[in-house]
Specification:
Length: about 500
């Protein structure tokens, strides 16, 4: 895939030897380099606590790329002595950061880079603030060119901590320099939501309360907490998934048409959705925690038996909730959010269920073959990106029989090369495009909305691993005379 070439810069990765750099950032930068999107003068500087030479880091990066599936010859391009460098940060003092600044300036002078810098903070949350403060103290918040800082989630753990974090960031960097990254927004199908809605009148004309019965957003995982237990047991599904990933998807589905195809206009419309959310009814949320069960024929332990989880932990591994948006477009339409670990399968979908026909015409003609479901648009984010519009057709012969069929599109059937989310997002950083990044106001309004639930969380209900969560979550939707999408009748004769 040919991508537009970004301006030359020094791309600095704090946490350059960490898991995120190894699995995501270095492979994404390599793909950008192979595609020609990185300028020939662009340089990459890994920064971490370990003491190692440039050559040591190049070997580390080459091994990481080859473990990711990149062949050795291709990995050599990114890991050459003219592209990749390393600097240890010592004890992280002001003197260490002054030394880092001199190294950056030396790399810029050698490569002829006009002071463009991107700082990626692939760091644990406790050291975000001190790193940003040190960058400001040594003048690395400004440069002859542009300076951008990329921050990974979590963006705080509640409203108060999010406000403090934003205040600390804004004391050093202007909001236009800050890129809060949510990798879900880098997925091609998520970006395609805007095209699907605003470039196709067939969808825009029905995208409202008159034609839509309900919207479901599901992000399910079949894996447990794995090696993340120490973090996850403090965060839970609400903080880890609902407050950021699923809420971002909600805003993209529900936003109004932006005034222009530009970052500020799109982010403004997303913030308007968050402002329009009806105060959360605590009875409209169900928390769960997985118990031992079976997935794909393999027995797996319950959450409390996972290594690193506190004894008698009440952390939720599943959340389902019903939300409403009080504006002219969506008044009365329920939005269902659901996420969980150790569910039946890995799946991320947005399901837009259209309203039933005013009269069940074919049900009257053939009562034993009445239409059971309304038309449904299913947007799949993973595992196979695409979308499908499910509607009814008549099967040949008599009496009347209907069949639900999908009119579908899959990215992998049409396009050979699908960029990874981080590849898309890193290129946007280099091009100065904040469209797919989270604004400070979005972070704070999201935390404010969920604050009552975080202050008084419901007791998590047990659900066996390999199921779709507690049965109480089904009752949330059944109250609306409907079903979760995975419970819908399958395609076939009815």
């Amino acid at each position: 895939m040919k991508l537009d070439q970004a301006e030359p810069c020094v791309f600095i990765i704090f946490g350059g030897t960490g898991d995120l750099a190894r699995r995501k950032l270095l492979p994404a930068l390599c793909e950008l380099e192979v595609s020609g999107a990185l300028h020939a003068k662009t340089r990459i500087l890994g920064v971490a606590l370990e003491q190692m030479s440039d050559d040591d880091y190049r070997r580390f990066a080459s091994e990481a790329l080859q473990a990711h599936g990149v062949d050795a010859a291709t990995a050599t391009g990114l890991c050459s002595d003219s592209t990749l460098y390393y600097e240890d940060i010592g004890e992280g003092t002001a003197r260490d950061f002054s030394r880092l600044r001199k190294r950056i300036e030396a790399i810029e002078a050698e490569a002829g880079i006009p002071g463009n810098r991107a700082f990626y903070l692939a760091l644990p949350p406790p050291v975000f603030v001190t790193t940003i403060e040190h960058l400001g103290q040594v003048g690395l918040n400004d440069s002859p060119g542009w300076t951008r800082v990329i921050v990974e989630k979590p963006f705080g753990t509640d409203l108060e901590s999010a406000r403090r974090l934003n205040a600390k960031i804004h004391a050093v960097y202007d909001e236009r320099q800050v890129y809060r990254i949510d990798h879900y927004l880098g997925k091609e199908t998520v970006q395609n939501l805007l095209v699907l809605r605003f470039a196709n009148t067939i969808f825009e004309s029905v995208w409202n309360r008159d034609r839509i019965e309900a919207v479901q957003i599901t992000v399910s995982e079949d894996l447990g907490v794995g090696t993340r237990a120490a973090y996850y047991d403090r965060a839970g599904a609400m903080r880890d998934m609902i407050q950021n990933h699923l809420t971002q998807l909600l805003t993209l589905v529900a936003m109004e048409v932006p005034a222009a195809d530009e970052a500020d206009a799109i982010r403004y419309e997303k913030i308007k959705v968050l402002r329009s959310l009806r105060p959360l009814d605590l009875n409209d949320a169900v928390f769960g925690q997985y118990t031992e069960g079976e997935i794909n024929g393999e027995k797996v332990p319950g959450y409390l038996d996972e290594h690193g989880v506190a004894v008698r932990s009440s952390t939720e591994t599943f959340v389902a909730m019903r939300l409403f948006i009080d504006n002219w477009r969506w008044e009365g339409v329920p939005f269902y959010l659901r996420t969980g670990k150790r569910l039946e399968k890995r799946l991320s979908t947005i399901t837009v269920q259209l309203r039933h026909t005013p009269v069940n015409f074919f049900g009257e003609l053939s009562s034993d073959q009445s239409l059971e479901t309304a038309d449904v648009l299913v947007i799949t984010l993973q595992p196979r990106e695409g979308f499908a519009l499910h509607f009814d057709v008549k099967t040949p012969g008599t009496p009347y029989r209907t069949r639900r069929i999908p009119l579908q599109f899959r990215y992998d059937e049409l396009f050979d090369d699908m960029p990874e989310a981080y590849q898309t997002l890193l290129l946007d950083v280099l091009n100065g495009d904040q469209t797919l990044f989270v604004h400070a106001d979005e972070v704070e309004r999201s935390w404010a909305f969920y604050a009552p639930l975080l202050a008084a969380p419901p007791k998590p209900l047990g659900y066996p691993a390999g199921s779709w969560g507690p049965q109480a979550a089904d009752r949330l939707v059944l109250a609306e005379h409907d079903l979760w999408q995975d419970r819908q009748p399958k395609t076939g004769n009815k």
